[in-house]
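# step 3/5: fold
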Amino acid sequence: MKQYKRTMTIMFESEEWMDSPVLMRKFSSYLHDDGISLISRYHYGNVNDEDYGLREVTSTKTSYDILINDKLAFTLSYLFRAREFVKDLDENGWDADWFERTEESTKTEWAETPGAYTFMDWEDMEGEQSNSTIYPSLVYVDANLSSVELTTKIQRVNDDAFSLTFEIRKQIETITDRKNIENSIVSIPANDMKAIRQKVVSALERISNAEITHTVDCTTEILSSVNYVCSKDTIDLVMEDEEE
C-alpha cells in the first residue's frame, strides 16, 4: 500500500492588507457566511455561528482599592498583593483595609479566528465533512469503498498575503500509470476545490479595493520519496475559470 499526496497552494497578495489588525477576523466571518468555517485541527461536531462575525462582548475587570484611614490610597490589580499590603500596613500601626471593585464593559468586536482548518457546509458539496480523519477534511468514497481525503487550510501570511492550501491524500496499491492515477484522483475533489477557491476569492474581494494577485504552487509525493510538479491539466481543474 502506498500513499499518494498532492499539495496545491494558492497565494493571494494585496498591498491593502498590510495595516489591518482585524483583517483575518473579518475574512473568517465572510467565509463562514459562504459555507466555509475556519476551525482548529482538533475541532469536533458542528460549528457555532456565535464564533464568527461581529458580536457583543462583555468583559469584567476586577481591581482592589487600598484604603488608609478610610480614604482611598491606591489601587492594585491582584488580590494577593492587596492582602499583603494591608497586612504590612496593619502591622506598622496604620488603619488599612482593601475593597474589591468590579467593573463591566461591553463592546462590539469581530470574533477571533478559531483556526486554519476548515469545516465545509454548502449546497451541492460533493464531499462529506469529516473530523475523524487525521485533519478535518472532505471525504469522497467511490463504489469500491476507496476514499480520497481533501484537507483545506486558509491562513494569513506575512501581513500582505493569504494562502489557500489543498492537500489530497489517497492510499493506493501500486503506481502503474502515474498520469492516470493523478488525473483520476485529482478530478474527484476538483469541483469542491474550485468552489472553495471561488468562495475564498469572493471573501478576499470584500476586504480589498486594491488589485489581488495570485501564484500557484503544486507538488505530488508518493511515499515521501518521489516528488514531482503537478501537471497543468490537473491544476486547471481548479483554476481554469480565471482564464475565461
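# step 4/5: annotate
The helical segments are 23-33, 79-91, 178-187, 190-206, 232-239.
# step 5/5: archive (pending)
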